[in-house]
Design goal:
Number of strands: 0
Length: 106
C-alpha cells in the first residue's frame, strides 16, 4: 500500500461502488490534486456511512478489510489517514446519529 496511491487502490478494490465515488468527487470538486485526507474525508467516509446505513454487508466487509490493512501498514501516513480522517469522522458521525435518535425518542 502506497500513501500517494491510497485512493486509487481503494477504488480498485471496491470497484462495484465506482459510481458513488464519481458522484461524490463531482459534488465536492475532488480531483487528483486534492490530498488523501480530503479525498477520504469527503468521498470514502460518506461511502462508508452509506453502506452501513443501507446494510450492504458485502461492501462493508470489503471496506473494513481494507481499513484493517491500513491499520497494519508500516507507513505512518496511511495510519494517520485511518486514525485522523476515517475513524474520527465515523466516531463524530456516530455520536451525532445517537444524539438525533435520543432527541427523536425524547
Amino acid at each position: 500500500m502506497k500513501y500517494n496511491e491510497l485512493y486509487k487502490i481503494f477504488k480498485e478494490e471496491i470497484s462495484e461502488s465506482y459510481s458513488f465515488f464519481e458522484v461524490k468527487e463531482k459534488e465536492n470538486l475532488i480531483d487528483e490534486t486534492d490530498g488523501i485526507h480530503i479525498v477520504f474525508g469527503m468521498v470514502i467516509v460518506p461511502y462508508i456511512l452509506h453502506i452501513v446505513q443501507n446494510d450492504k454487508m458485502y461492501e462493508i466487509n470489503k471496506v473494513f478489510s481494507f481499513l484493517e490493512n491500513m491499520a497494519i501498514c508500516e507507513d505512518v501516513k496511511i495510519k494517520e489517514v485511518l486514525d485522523f480522517t476515517v475513524l474520527e469522522q465515523l466516531a463524530d458521525e456516530g455520536h451525532d446519529i445517537r444524539k438525533r435518535q435520543i432527541q427523536r425518542l425524547g
